[in-house]
Design goal:
4 copies of one chain form a homotetramer. Helix content of chain A is 38%, strand content 26%. Chain A has 13 helices and 15 strands. In chain A, helix 4 runs parallel beside helix 5 and helix 9 packs across helix 13. Chains in contact: A-B, A-C, A-D, B-C, B-D, C-D.
Chain lengths: 338, 338, 338, 338
C-alpha cells in the first residue's frame, strides 16, 4: 500500500541502479507510488535496463548522466553488491537521497570508508532491511515498543530459505553469516533495542556438500547477549522444504509476542489423514511483497519530509559487524565480544 | 477429573443398569470417583454384567434385588433405550437418585407418563446430555452467561459423526432427528437460554442409500427461532471422514464465541504440500471422555448436596419435543411452532 | 496481482461509470493493470468524476460521449444500483464489453428485460460477484472441482458485516436478502455446482430496531436444498463487532474444506489472559482487495481472449431469483420451490 | 490412559517413596492402573505418608520393612533428590524393579557410583523423564523415527516455567542447568538420536535479582552440536507469565515437525480487540498429566514383560553430563566438548 499522496509536494524523481530481480520489485513499487516517478534505470545489462525502463515509462541511461540530472532527487541502488559503494558515494557527491540494498559492502573497512564519504557530503542512506517493514514484524515491534510485554528478555529468530542458492552465488556471497544472517542480525538489534555485546556462532554443512566444498555452511545457530543480559537466538538454514520460514518471537517480563509465517490462503482441508493448510508463502518476493512497498514508501516519506533515514548507514554497519563477529566465533568456538 | 472428596459425606453406592459400551464408561468413572462406589451391575446379558462388575469390585445382580438394597442410593441407567422408563419408574418408587442416558423414551407420550410417575414419587432424574460437560462447551457457556458477548443473537451447531451406525441400529433409532440431533436440540436450548418457538427442518439421504431405504435421512439442517428472535442453525451428518466434528459458535451483540474441535496432539507436520495437523478426536468416547467424568461428578455432587438435577427430566422432554417438531417440519416442508 | 501483460494485444480502453467508494477501487485496479487503460470516468457528481479521472490520467465526461468513442472497448459499471440497467443497455447497444457491479436491478422483471436487450445485441456482461475471486474461496472451489472432497453434501456460508449501513441505505437497499445475502446465494450456487430447488428463510431484527422500523431484518438464516439433495446453510448478520466475517465450509463424501477469515498480521500476544491475535480484516475493501484485482483481471482476460464472461448475466439473475424466493419464504414461513 | 490389563499376569505390588506433590501424582496413577497396586508409602513426613496411603488403600511404613516384603516387586522413588541414590541402591540390593524421578543425584560422581551398584546387583532403573511420554512429543518423535522429515538437522526446544520456584528451592536446586534444563538435555538427546559433542551455554538473571544473589540465573540459551553436525538450541526461562511453555520443533531434510503448547479448551473469543484463546495449560501437573500416566504404564509394562527400561540410568547420566558441560561453558564463555 503506497503512502498517501504528498499534498502539493513535488513528485520525487528517481534513478534506479539495477534491473534484476529485486530491481524489478523496486521499480514497480516506485511506479505505483503516487509521490514518486521512476525517471532512469541504469544497469550493466543494457537490455535489462531498457526493458525495465520501458515497462514503467522511464529511460535507460548511464550512471553519470542520471546523477547529473538535477530533477533526480533520489537514487535506489539494487545492483550487485560490489557496485553499492561506488553508487552510494557518487550519489552522495551529487546530493541525492540514497536508498541502498544491503549490504553496503562485504568488507567492513570499505563500509567505514563509504560512511565517511557520506559524512563529508552531509549525506545519508536508507539501508534496505526490508523485514522491518513486514506488516507482522512491524506490528510486533510496535507492541514491544508500547510495552505490551514489558522488558525484553529473550528474542528468537527463525529464518530459513526454501532452497539454497546456486553454488556460484554461494562462492561470492561472503558466507552464510554475512549474506543470509545479516537480516537476522538487524532484526535482533531492532528488537532488543540495544547493542549485542557477545556473539556465539556455530554451524554445519548438512544440506549440500557442495556448499561445504565452497567453504561455507548451510545451517547455523547464533546466540547474542546484550549488556542488559537480554538474550537472542538466531536459527538459519539454507533449506526448508516447506517454504520460506520467517518467524520471530519475543519473550518479555509481562508476556510473549510472536509472528508466525503467512500462508497464501486460509483454506483447511480435512480428511482422515488430518487437517492440512497451505505451506508458508514460498520465498521473499511473496512474503515480503508488502514489506518492499512499505519500505519504499517509508524512504520516500523520509525524503519528502526531511526525516532521518531509518534503518540508516549505521544500522547497516552494525549488522555487518555482528556478522564479522559471528564468523570469528564460528572459527574459534568461543564467544566474541563486540 | 473427579470431583473433590465429599468430606465426611458417606460414599454413594450405585447400581448401574447396562454393561455395554457407554455402560463401561460410566462404570469406570464411578469406580474412579472418590465419592461413589459401584455396588451392582444389572444387564440382560449376564456375562457382560458379571465381567463389568468384576472389573470394578461390584456384583452382578437383577434389578429387583439391587433396588431393594437400602445401601444403594443412586442408579445409573445406561441400558437400551426401550428399558429406560421401566428402570426410571422402578428407581423412583424405590426412592433412588436417578441418572439416565438420553432419551427417556422415543415416544413423547410415554416420556410424559414417566415424568408423571417421577412427580408422584417426588423423584427427579439427571438426563445424560454429556455435551454440556465438555470442558470447551462448558467454558463457552460460562462466557455467554457472564455476558462476555452480550445478548445471544445466533447459535451455530455443527455435529457430525465419523461414520453411520449399522443399518440395524438406524431402523430402531427413531430416526436422525430423535436419535442424533437430540443432543444438538439440548445444546440449542442451553445456549439460547430460552425455548425455541419455531422449528424448520430439512434433510437428505446422501451418505448411504440403505439409510434412505430404512426410511431415514443422514444429512440434515435445522433452523430454530426463539420468541426473542434469536436464531439457531444445526448441521448434522452421519459421516465426516475426518472424524467426529463437534463445534459450536455463538454470535452475540458484543462478540463471538466458538469452540472448535479438539485434536489428539498439537503436532504440526510441514512439507512442501502444506502443514498438516491431526484430525479431530475420532468419536464420542474420545472427545467426550472428560465430559462423561464431569457429568457423573456433577450428578454425584447434586446427589450428595441435595441439589436440583440439571439437565433434568424437563430438559430431556423439551429436546425430544423439538425432535418431534423437526420430524413434522421435515415431512411438511413448513415451519412448525412449538 | 494483475494478469500477465497481453503480449502484443492492444491495451483495453475503459470507461467507468461511478466514482464512489467501489468505483475508486475499480479505477485504481484498471490503472495498475498492464493490459488496460482508464480512459473516461462518468458520474452524476462531476467533481468526483473529475477527481478520480485526474488521479489516473483519465478524462471525466458524460455517458453519451464515452460510449461514442470507438477506442473504448469496455465499460465498468460501478454507479448506483438504479442506473445499472440503463448503462448496461446503452453499453450493449454501443458494442462494448460490460462489467457490472451486482445487482443488475432490484426488480427481477427489469433484470429479465435487460438480459433480453443483451441477447438482442449479442452482448454479454460480467457480473461483479467479487467473492469468487478471493484467493481463499477460489482455492477452495478449485479443490472442490478437482474432487478433493468427493461429492458435495453440505455447504455452510457465514457472512456478517462489522456494522449495519446507514438507515437511509437500508431503506433503498431492497432488504437484507436482496442486498446482502445475494453474494451468498451466488456462492451457494457456485459451490453446490447445481441450482437450489428449495429455499427456506427466516430472520429477525436484533441489531437495531430502526432497521425493523424500516421494514427490514438484520439477522437471517437461509437453508437451500438442491435436486440432488445437497444442502446449504447461509448465516447473515449486519453486525459482527469483531470485523467482517466471511467464511465458507464444504462437507463432501471424502473430506471437508473450509476457508477461514484472514487476519491483518500473524502476530500472537500471549499473556496470563490468553493468546490474542488480530481480529479479521475489517471490511470488504480490506478483505476483498485482492479479489477485486483478480476479478478485474479475469474480466480483462476474457475480453482480450474472447472468452465467455463468468460470472455472467444468468448468474446475476439466478442469485436474485434466490433472494426473491427467500423473501417469499420469510414472509410465509414455508419452503419455496424455485 | 492406563495400559491394557496384563491378562493373567500378577498385579505388580509397589512401594512408593515420597508423598509430596509428584508423589501424589504417581500414587494416583498406580492406584488407577489395572496392573499395579500401591502397597506401601514411605515418607519422612509420617502424616503425609499415612494420608497418601489411606487415599489409595495402601499402608504407610518405613523403607526397611517395605523393601523386605517379597510381594513388593517394584519401587517408585519420588522423594527429595538427596535421598534418591540411597533408595535406588537399597532397592537394587532387594531385587526390586526401580522407577526414579530425575535426577539420580546432583553430583555426577555419585551418579556413577550408584550406576555401579546397579550393575553389581544386575539391576536397572527407569528414570522419570516424563516429557518423552507426552502424547504430542511422543507423536513427534514417532514421526521423526519413521523418517517423515528425513535426516534431523536442527532441533529447537522451548521450555519456560510460569513462575520461578521459591528462593530456598533455587539454593539447593543445583542451578538452572542441572535442575530445569536437564529435561531439555534429555529431549535433545532423544530427538537428535545421537550424543551431543559440543555444548555452548549462556544465560542471565533477568527475572528476579534474588535468583542472581543466590548464585543462579533464570534465563538461558544452550546450543548443542552433534558429531554429524546436527544442531540443537534450548531456550529456558523461569518465568513465562502466560503459562507453562513447552514446545519442540525439529527441522529435517524433508520437512519440519513441531509440537505446540496444549490449551485447556478450544474456545475462541472474538471481539473488536482480536481473537483470544486460552493461555497454555498452566504448569507441569496439568500439561504432563497424561504423560505421567503413560510413563508409569510404560514402566509397569516393562516390568511385566521383562523389557529394558527406557529411559534408563545411562540416559539419566548423559543428561546430567550435558548439564555439567553447560555449567562449564557458561562459566568460561567457550564451547565445551563432551
Amino acid at each position: 500500500m503506497a503512502g498517501p499522496r504528498q499534498g502539493d509536494a513535488p513528485v520525487i524523481e528517481i534513478c534506479q541502479f539495477g534491473a534484476g530481480r529485486i530491481g524489478r520489485v523496486h521499480a514497480a513499487n516506485i511506479a505505483a507510488h503516487p509521490g514518486a516517478r521512476l525517471r532512469y534505470v541504469v544497469d550493466v545489462d543494457n537490455a535489462a535496463a531498457a526493458a525495465l525502463a520501458a515497462a514503467h515509462g522511464a529511460e535507460a541511461t548511464d550512471a553519470e548522466s542520471a546523477l547529473a540530472d538535477p530533477d533526480v532527487s533520489a537514487i535506489v541502488i539494487a545492483s550487485s553488491t560490489d557496485t553499492h559503494v561506488g553508487f552510494i558515494e557518487a550519489g552522495a557527491r551529487a546530493g541525492k537521497a540514497i536508498f541502498c540494498e544491503k549490504p553496503i559492502h562485504l568488507d567492513l573497512r570499505r563500509v567505514d570508508a563509504c560512511l565517511s564519504v557520506l559524512d563529508e557530503c552531509n549525506a545519508s542512506i536508507f539501508v534496505g532491511f526490508n523485514r522491518r517493514f513486514d506488516p507482522s514484524f512491524a506490528a510486533l515491534k510496535s507492541a514491544v515498543r508500547e510495552g505490551q510485554i514489558g522488558r525484553v528478555e529473550m528474542v528468537s529468530i527463525t529464518s530459513r530459505d526454501p532452497a539454497p542458492p546456486p553454488i556460484d552465488y554461494i562462492k561470492v556471497s561472503g558466507g552464510l553469516f554475512r549474506d543470509m544472517m545479516i537480516h537476522d542480525f538487524d532484526m535482533a538489534r531492532w528488537l532488543l533495542d540495544e547493542e549485542p555485546a557477545e556473539v556465539f556462532a556455530t554451524g554445519s554443512c548438512l544440506v549440500d556438500p557442495a556448499i561445504g566444498a565452497a567453504g561455507d555452511i548451510d545451517t547455523a545457530l547464533v546466540t547474542l547477549k546484550a549488556e542488559s543480559g537480554a538474550l537472542c537466538q538466531i536459527s538459519n538454514s539454507r533449506r526448508a522444504v516447506y517454504g520460506y520460514d520467517q518467524r520471530i518471537e519475543v519473550l518479555g517480563a509481562r508476556g510473549m509476542l510472536r509472528a508466525e509465517n503467512r500462508l497464501p490462503t486460509s483454506v483447511e482441508h480435512a480428511t482422515a489423514d488430518g487437517i492440512r493448510t497451505d505451506p508458508p508463502l514460498h520465498f521473499f518476493l511473496e512474503r515480503y511483497e508488502e514489506a518492499y512497498k512499505r519500505e519504499l514508501a517509508s524512504f520516500l516519506d523520509a525524503v519528502a519530509g526531511g526525516k532521518i533515514f531509518s534503518p540508516g548507514g549505521e544500522d547497516g554497519r552494525a549488522a555487518q559487524a555482528l556478522a564479522e563477529a559471528a564468523v570469528t566465533s564460528f572459527e574459534s568456538g568461543n564467544t566474541v565480544r563486540v
